[in-house]
Amino acid sequence: MKSILYIIGLFLIATSVNGQGLGQGTIEAPVNYWPVANPDTLDLNKEALQSHLERCRRSGASGCLVAYKGYIVQQWYRPKDYLPWIGTRSAVKSWTGLLTGILIKDGSIESIDDPVAKYIPEWTAGAKAGVTIRHLLTMTAGLRDHTGGEITVPRVDQPHDNKNRHPGVVGQKNHNAYVLDLELDWPPGKHFSYSNEGVQLLSPILKRAAGMPVSQYARERLFNPLKMDSTIMLVDEYHNTVTFGGTRTTLRDFAKIGQLMLNKGNWNGHQIVSTSWVEQSTTSSPIMKNYGFLWWLDPERSNYAAAGSGDNNCIVFPDIELVVARLQRDRFNKATVKYQSTETLELIRSIVVENTAQAK
């Protein structure tokens, strides 16, 4: 059975690695298809790869992909999962961070320390005038999550009360109108609080800076260059781009963002986003060591991730040139193991690290 799973998990045609991996070509000779490679030719730990495949399957995933040095070395889809696209959930927050970096590269946003009020007139008074784009990128704007999760820091103007819950931006028809009307829960720059509302506030800012809907800008400046033809950002009933969650994509398109990050923002000779932005995005903020610019960080195991509920994750291990993507269609799918865990991360690292150590 294990051998059958391993064969299913490796849709491999190539027997050796020649040339360059995905996105690692040049403007004149781009690499747009995703080449596959036999793990044997790359001296990878096949036992660890197989264990990862089985763990992915048992976790209730719809599919998983492992790429090493720009080559697919493992790819698996759950049988009878017919729809090609899956929602990313909150993993799209990291994409929103990338779009911010592209706008800065273009000069459409001068600095991440620009006040939000520069783009949103409604935020020019009181404490909200002190909120910057940096605060939104690092989840330190002073907005709590309004979707019903526990409030870890009391509001400035009222006692801590977890009974006063409502669906927040997730339950709104007009996402932007809702977040524009919010008041701060505490002063900006003081606390980390994972907030859907804070990331949605970037939607009107990016739209104003880009001069077009964020979904269109994402298509032109990010999805098209990466040939992410099966990916679309969602919009609400008022045509506001949803920047905190959702986005329909495929496993390969999802993994391409991780490969772009691994390539330090370069794609076939085009610098999609600056190398410095990739570095800043994956550097711990002063308030939260496990968070950068809308990317989750794991300094202990040297990786970072675009992560959403249901373990919809794209994890990048830059030091070993590994990208791992996992998507799950059914949030409540029955599983016998938990995918997002220290055990899984250490298993993934062993695909390269342990085998390299054995070779020595």
How would you summarize this macromolecular structure in one to three sentences?
It is built from 12 helices and 10 strands. The protein has helices spanning 2-9, 46-58, 92-106, 133-137, 175-180, 196-200, 202-210, 214-223, 251-262, 275-281, 342-350, 353-359; strands at 63-68, 71-77, 86-87, 248-249, 266-267, 270-271, 296-298, 303-308, 312-317, 322-327.
List keywords for this structure.
12 helices, Beta-lactam-related, alpha+beta, two-stranded antiparallel ribbon, disordered N terminus, Beta-lactamase, hydrolase activity, 360 residues, six-stranded antiparallel beta sheet
Write the layout of secondary structure elements.
Blueprint lengths: L1 H8 L36 H13 L4 E6 L2 E7 L8 E2 L4 H15 L26 H5 L37 H6 L15 H5 L1 H9 L3 H10 L24 E2 L1 H12 L3 E2 L2 E2 L3 H7 L14 E3 L4 E6 L3 E6 L4 E6 L14 H9 L2 H7 L1
Antiparallel strand pairs: 1-2, 1-10, 3-4, 5-6, 7-8, 8-9, 9-10
Organism: Fodinibius salsisoli
Pfam family, one: Beta-lactamase
Keywords: Hydrolase
Overview of the molecule:
The chain is α+β, with helices and mostly antiparallel strands and 360 residues long. The protein has a domain at 1-86 and 246-360: Beta-lactamase (3-Layer(aba) Sandwich). Helices cover 29% and strands 12% of the residues. The protein has helices at 2-9, 46-58, 92-106, 133-137, 175-180, 196-200, 202-210, 214-223, 251-262, 275-281, 342-350, 353-359; strands at residues 63-68, 71-77, 86-87, 248-249, 266-267, 270-271, 296-298, 303-308, 312-317, 322-327. Strand 8 (303-308) and strand 9 (312-317) form a beta hairpin. Helix 1 packs across helix 2 (46-58), helix 2 (46-58) runs antiparallel to helix 11 and helix 3 (92-106) runs parallel beside helix 7 (202-210). The radius of gyration is 21 Å and the shape is globular.
